[in-house]
User: Fold this.
Amino acid sequence: MTSFHVRPATKNDLPLICTVEVDSFPDPYPAALMARLQRTHSESFFVAENPSSELVGYCVASEKEGSAHLISIGVLREHRRKGVGAALLETLLVWLNERRVEELWLEVNTGNNAAINFYERFGFARVMTIENYYADGSPAAKMMLPMRERAEELGASVRGRKV
Assistant:
């Protein structure tokens, strides 16, 4: 398994974040939306770099009043199943835990079994299905992670380490 460094995103990362977005999703967010997310959620926007300092993934979440929403997480195809997504999500979970967030929500295409399994390994549970959620009409599984159950696991052991 390769080591990845996760850090806060910067404005200079935007072109590469957009490259990851296009590589990750059939209906990617436009660059203008990614720029807006980076401005409005700069504290909860993280990128992962490989040992060569190449940006290979990102995640961004919103947080308000004890609840958070994972807006997007993407990893370049060639770097999937190497721990990049886990490193990003662990970093985000630590950040949310430090802010005493009680629950993290997300939506994922019901046909994306790899992503659903990934989230379930982190403790997310399916709460409901949202029909016609995506532009192509496919449904989304709405999932939730109760952060209190993860709080002890998210202590200082993750902070500052290379994953």
Notes: The longest strand covers residues 55-64.
